[in-house]
Structures are given as structure tokens and as C-alpha cells.
Amino acid sequence: MTQVQTSWPQGTECVARYNFKGTSEQDLPFNKGDVLTIVIVTKDPNWYKAKNSAGREGTIPANYVQKREGVKSGGKLSLMPGPTSLCYLTHDIQFLEQHYTKDADGLCTKLIKPKVEEGSVAAQDEFSRDVMVGDYRGTKVAVKCIKHDATAQAFIAEASVMTQLRHDNLVQLLGVIVEENGSLFIVTEYMAKGCLVDYLRSRGRTVLGGDALLNFALDVCEAMEYLEINNFIHRDLAARNVLVSEDNLAKVSDFGLTKEASSTQDTAKLPVKWTSPEALREKKFSTKSDVWSYGILLWEIYSFGRVPYPRIPLKDVVPRVEKGYKMDCPEGCPEVVYNIMKQCWNLDPAARPSFQMLKEWLQHINQGMIKKQ
């Protein structure tokens, strides 16, 4: 597998994967298989200054070369060290898909098709993902394939920002594997207990008490407050896009993946039951549209993973919501939490609370529960 880094040290030897003729006098032409030595990393991380075996120096495209040492044919997943580093990995995706479908070959499992989440229209139609579990220096990582070109291009544009977004309740992006046709794989931290909606459905109220549900609600809210502070809009917040760690910490996933797709796709392909009325009607996405989705997610949490708007045909959801319809309080849900849901579902985006306010309200509820224990 080819690995391209933004931090190869001076003197690193690399091998050319493609022919490069150069487009200016400053460029260093080379042929596939040539050995080059890095002289300096330029201000643009996509280019290096390098020299060939004859000593001639010039700039070379970073994604045309691979590190000479430790490279194996059809090699295994490799990631750059460093918590905030972004690596661009390019390889023969089709070969890897075929290879890892037949043989785990160092991964924790063979490549398998993911389970399609119920009610996840966007996930079904827009993202068509494969998922692998990998091992990086003794640590499990998750690898997702994103095949939607618009989404892939949008993600690449956001990737440099996303690697800088670090929060205990956000699934950490570790790397990006870029395919030449625009599709890509993303490499993230591994979340042992899967997505929240499955976690809730498989355990139910006999296992999960009110404190566990509130903790999930707070975890997600803290992540969304962090995105709010950083002016980052999720656009597809739902229990299916929240993952649960080994120690039951909920982390928001897939932030940034729907940004471009949501602004260009028609409303019929949006996850209608989770999307705010103004986003469906006018494609106006904002932190306040995320707040609407958070209210739906709260309802999912307290209904233990039920699909929102039960017994209402999908085509009738939007007309009813725009007339002021709000879902009933889930069985066993505290009234104070249900009131928060309803405030998230205000038809006027400006009247909805901020995530900072939501966090303060939930923390107050949590403190009250602790005092009663």
C-alpha cells in the first residue's frame, strides 16, 4: 500500500509509482520505479523537493511516490503516527476489496457488507459503504468505504479541518485512503459496541436505566456543542451515526460526510424523519437544523431505538410536522426530557435552543438524578 505523508524527513528514499513528466522547469521528471530522495517538504504538503540518482533536484507530487522501506505488494493498512496527522493513502481499491473479502490477512475480520440501518435513506442511497476492521500497532481501527463521488470530494475538502476536531465524544478520524476515481476509504478509531441504535435495540429497558440513557444524551450533546463552537454542521445527526465505545461512551460519527451531498441532492433522498423542515424545504442547514435532529435522536434514545414517527407513512411525515405535529413522549421518558425534545422541534429555527443550552439543561437533570440516588 502506498503511504504519502506530510512529514517525511530529509533523506527519506521513495519509489515512483507513476511516470511524471513535469509541468514546469522547477519540476523533477521521473519514471515509474525510479528511486528518489526527499530534500525538503515544501509549504504545500502535496509536493516535495527531491533529487534523483543523478543528483538533479526539483519538485515532485507527493501522491506519485511511496516510501521505499517497508512497502509490500498489495500491502496491509498503514497509518501515520501522530494524533492530528492526516495521511492520504492511495492504492488499488478493487484489489484490496477482492483480497480482504477472501482472506482477513492480518485484519481482525474479512471484508463484509455492513448491515443497512432501518430508516436510513441517506445511508442506503448516498453512501453505500463497506466496513473493515484493521489493526494498527496493536490498536483496532475501523475502515469505511465511501463510494459516493460528491460525498468523497466534499470529505476531502473538509478532511484537513476534521483531523483538527478533537473531542472525547467525536469519533477520531485517523486517515484517508484516496482512490483515483474520487471514491475513498476513511480510517477512524474503532468503536467496539457499534452504533447506538443497535445498542439500544439489543439491550432495551431491562438493561439500560435512565442514567445510561441520559449519559448517552449528554455525550452526544457535548460533541455537538463542540461542533457548534467550531462552526461545523453535521447534517445527518441520528442514532445510527453515533457509536458506542467499549466503556459505553457515545461518540458522534460521520460528521462532514453529508455536507456536499445534502446541499445538492433532492429532498426525497434526505433522511426525512431526522431532517428539519427548513432543511427539507429550502435546503437551509445550520446548527439549528442539527438541533432539530438532536431532538429526534433524543426520542430514539428514550424509545430504545424505535424508528421515529411510528405508524405514520413517510409521505405524511413532512405535511404533519409542518402543521405542528410532534411525536408523543416515549414510554418511561421523564417529562423534563420530553420538553427538551419539543423545544428542539420548534418550527422556527431561531427559537430552538443552542447545544450549549441543551447541555446545561441535561446537566441540571443529571445533577437532580444524582441527588435522588
UniProtKB/TrEMBL annotation:
Keyword Nucleus appears in the UniProt entry: no
Name recorded for this polypeptide: non-specific protein-tyrosine kinase
Stretches that traverse the bilayer: none
InterPro entries: Kinase-like_dom_sf (IPR011009), Non-receptor_tyrosine_kinases (IPR050198), Prot_kinase_dom (IPR000719), Ser-Thr/Tyr_kinase_cat_dom (IPR001245), SH3-like_dom_sf (IPR036028), SH3_domain (IPR001452), Tyr_kinase_AS (IPR008266), Tyr_kinase_cat_dom (IPR020635)
Name of the coding gene: Csk
EC number: 2.7.10.2
GO molecular function: ATP binding; non-membrane spanning protein tyrosine kinase activity
The SH3 domain, residue ranges: 9-70
Annotated Protein kinase domain residues: 116-362
Taxonomic lineage of the native organism: Eukaryota, Metazoa, Chordata, Craniata, Vertebrata
Coiled coil regions, renumbered to chain: none
Pfam families: PK_Tyr_Ser-Thr, SH3_1
Signal peptide annotation: none
UniProt keyword list: ATP-binding, Kinase, Lipoprotein, Myristate, Nucleotide-binding, SH3 domain, Transferase, Tyrosine-protein kinase
